[in-house]
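Lab notebook page, bench 4
Experiment: in silico fold of construct C2
Operator: M.H.
Input chain length: 68 residues
Purpose: comparison with the prior construct
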Amino acid sequence: MVTFYTTMFQPNAFQQQLFEQIFSSTKGKSKITADLMAVLGCSRASLYRKRTGATPLTADEMVKLANH
């Protein structure tokens, strides 16, 4: 229960877990990085900030990821 509580209220925890799932599901890290940059229309640095949770995903970006 403590783990759930901590994860649930940690800023951007969902976002970090989402990117962890995306990156762990493929072997080509460079290709998935390039694909995500194209889908989100962002730079490598911006993608890194989104991946680490430093910058939140917008609702629009979440929809783009879901549709890709």
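Observations: The chain has one domain: 2-67. The first helix runs from residue 2 to 8.
Next step: discuss at group meeting.
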